[in-house]
Each structure stands twice: as C-alpha cells, then as structure tokens.
Design goal:
four-stranded antiparallel β-sheet, 250 residues, 34% helix, globular, alpha/beta, single chain, 9 helices, six-stranded mixed β-sheet
C-alpha cells in the first residue's frame, strides 16, 4: 500500500526533556491506526509535530512524497490533513450547522467574500447537513454548540474536521471524558468513514483500540517501543509490562 504520512527521525526537545525521540513512522493510506502509550509518552506531542502545531528539534515529516516539515498548520490542512484536539476547540455561540458551514466556506476560500451571506451558501449548507446526518447530528443542527452534551460536541469537532475534506484525519483522544456508550458511538461513526480517509488516533481505552484499530504503534518515553497488528500488541510482554501494568515475573 502507499504511504500517506511518514516521519524520519522526528524529535522534539524542551531543554533536557526529550518528548519525542527520533521517531520514524509510516501511516499507510486508508489505515485505521492507533497510537497508544502511558501518560507522558509523547503521543500528543507527536500529533502536534505531524500537524505543525510545534516545530521539530530534528527530523522530517512527509505527506506522501512531499516534505512538509516547515509547512504551517493551515497549509497542511489545505493539503488534506485535519485533526481534533484532546480538549474541544469549538465556537460555543454558533449553532451546529453554522460551525460546519463555516469550515466548508473556509475550505472553499469564501471567508473573504463578505457580500455573500451564509443564507446564500446553499451548496455549502447542503453539504454540511449531509455531514451532520452521517455523524448522527442532523437533528441537532439548529442547537447552539454550548448546549450539546459533551459526547455530541466531540462528534461536532469530528464533523468540522471532515468538512475540510481531509485525506488524513488525526484524532487526539476523541472519546476522552465521555461515557462508554457515547464513546462507542463515536467510534462506530469513525468506522463508517470511507477508506479515502486515513485515520490515526490516540486512545487510552484498550477495548476501543482493539475493536477499531487495524495496526497499533506503542510509544514509550518519546520513542516507538513496538508496532504491529492488534493481536501482536496484545501478546507482547513489553507492552503488558510498560503499558498494561502486567509485568512478567520470572
């Protein structure tokens, strides 16, 4: 399979702290790939490096065959990379529909067209409504974002990310802070995404990881410990020791 995103010896230091240490990683096109590891392993820092939120101390990031190490975040979005954050970054005073339409208009370069009202963006509104229907948010489209339950706010953030038409979707703990039933719904929605969208996600709930991921990378102390299929990871004694807390004895 072709590689959608890869890194070569990617690193990030803050003084003496090595948050990410020479990570060489490849994400195959169409993948459903989980990034796991204990707290402080460097998972979010790695996502921030991939998306350009923080610059690397060393190494490179490639989108397909194109080196994007110095590309700012908004241009990575233009090239097909989108993400969600560990903590929601939404507009609480907008409705659900307005939030997604705004993302579509930005994608289409309509933000500067001040003479065109949102009501005239009929094509963009129709597309936003379809995205919301696909994510089971259609009935909530006229609600203010601040009034949504937290699980639906997480889905809205994914809807906004999808409105950019990403080829690569990076999700930083999409199920964090929500009940198990709602987190299962989020991942069932993600499971229905077309294979044209490559997904890399951080998640601490191992039930969700092993249910959804087809390949898993384990990060420990900023470096890759092991990568493989879910069963390989489940059977690896090093993973059980450092992540699952099942240290092997004699």
């Amino acid at each position: 399979m072709s590689v959608a995103l890869r890194t070569e010896r990617l690193s990030r230091n803050w003084g003496a702290l090595q948050a990410v240490r020479e990570v060489s990683f490849a994400l195959e096109a169409g993948a459903r790939h989980a990034l796991i590891g204990p707290n402080g392993a460097g998972k979010t820092t790695l996502i921030n490096l991939l998306t350009g939120v923080v610059p690397p101390s060393g190494g490179d990031v490639f989108l397909g065959e194109h080196r994007i190490t110095q590309l700012p975040p908004h241009l990575r979005v233009k090239r097909g990379m989108s993400r969600t954050f560990q903590i929601n970054t939404l507009f609480p005073g907008l409705t659900v529909l307005e939030s997604v339409v705004l993302a579509i208009c930005e994608r289409e370069g309509l933000g500067a067209a001040w003479r065109r009202t949102v009501a005239r963006c009929t094509g963009e509104i129709a597309e936003a409504c379809q995205i919301l229907e696909d994510l089971h948010l259609g009935s909530e489209r006229n609600r203010l974002t601040r009034s949504l339950p937290y699980g639906q706010q997480r889905l809205l953030e994914i809807a906004i990310a999808l409105a950019t038409r990403p080829r690569i979707l990076l999700l930083d703990e999409p199920a964090a802070g929500i009940p198990a039933a709602e987190s299962a719904e989020i991942f069932s929605v993600l499971a229905r995404l077309p294979r044209a969208v490559t997904v890399l996600f951080i998640e601490h709930d191992m039930r969700l990881v092993f249910r959804f991921a087809e390949r898993i990378t384990v990060l420990v102390d900023g470096a890759i410990l092991v990568q493989g299929a879910p069963q390989q990871i489940a059977d690896d004694s090093r993973v059980r020791e450092v992540y699952l807390g099942e240290a092997q004895h004699g």
